[in-house]
Amino acid sequence: MKNVNTVIFDMDGVIVDGMPYHVKSWKEALSTIGMSASDLDIYLMEGMTGRETMEVFIKKSNISISDETADKVIKLKREIFNEIFTVTLMKGIENFLLELKDRQYKLALVTGTRLEVVNKVLQMGLENIFKVIVTGEMVNKGKPNPEPYMNAVDELNARKEDCIVIENAPAGITSAKGAGLTCFAVQTSLSEEYLQDADKIFQDIDEVSEFLLPSIQSKEN
After folding, report:
1. 142 lies in the same domain as 199
2. Which of 20, 60, 124, 152 has the largest count of CB atoms under 10 Å?
3. Domain identity same for 45 and 139
4. pLDDT tens readout for residues 10-20
């Protein structure tokens, strides 16, 4: 890892513990039109935009709904999420980010979540951490399409071989790998069996830090 100078982070499940709120709000919103989804279904679609997630739900169900109804469900999901969401940073992430920033590594955030939610997270002392932020409304195609990560690399003016992505869900891993990037996965939302396409799998952010920071230190020495 001696050539790494750029680390690109997913948000939910990597930076902030937001997925339980997404699960609850999706379930409540879907129930209003007689649709349902398991916790696992929602976790497996983590990283996708609301529109893309809704399209998957529709395809998997036997219920035919109009675009207008789908839009209403997405809007309701967002309203419920905004009402219940509380920012809780993942264990170890703040120190890890500050250490990387202190060592002058370029850091980026790539998420399917909307910018208004991202800003709430950044207000937890992370305002000046990320050089580039890519959110769901900034791309034509979200994860698992490679566009979000490709855009981040372009905006950073970085070389793909110098980057590491930290993800925690299949859609994000597929997106990162499709963009030609090395991807680490953390088991904060899903178990190892769902993360097999990652280049390396870790239990949590602390394990990533222990693995990556010694590599950084050896590079400096």
Report:
1. yes
2. 152
3. no
4. 999 999 999 99
